[in-house]
Amino acid sequence: MADASLWVFGYGSLMWNPGFPFAERQIATLSDFHRCFCMRSIHHRGTEQEPGLVLALDRAVGASCDGLAFCVAPEHADETLAGLRERELISSAYLEAELEIKLRDGRLVTSITYIVDPDHVQYCGGLPLEEQAGIIAKAVGGRGPNNEYLFNTAAHLEELGIRDPDLSWLSGHVRALSG
Question: What keyword terms does UniProt attach to this protein (predicted)?
Fold first, then answer.
């Protein structure tokens, strides 16, 4: 890794809390995946007894996900990758993949991207939005309330001008359930 820059694609908390130094940041699009609350969180935003939900990239041919691409300078690549693996691969529900993304400026780059393993016990793709809202409104884990994760991600997407109708709907519904 030491001889080349590392690109990392963020679509959830990595967008507003990357936790690593970066030399460049751009809006980017990943094809054939969509962002959704399809992974039960038993560490960060829930517990084993009362799991929360976290976002993951779920494969969906023809779909796309807009997020942020971070370019990490070569001298920080190894340390960044080690930190990401410690953070993202905590329960093996995410798979590390090298996928092509399209940067807003038109460049195509290969990025480290964490996608959900649909065969993992924590995978819960296809939950109705109402059910997701009920879970997110109540769950709390080691990194805080599940609704905080939703609200931070939705707010950051809005700041970036990225439309995500499901997250917007969930934010409104979870606020009503929590209030």
Answer: Lyase
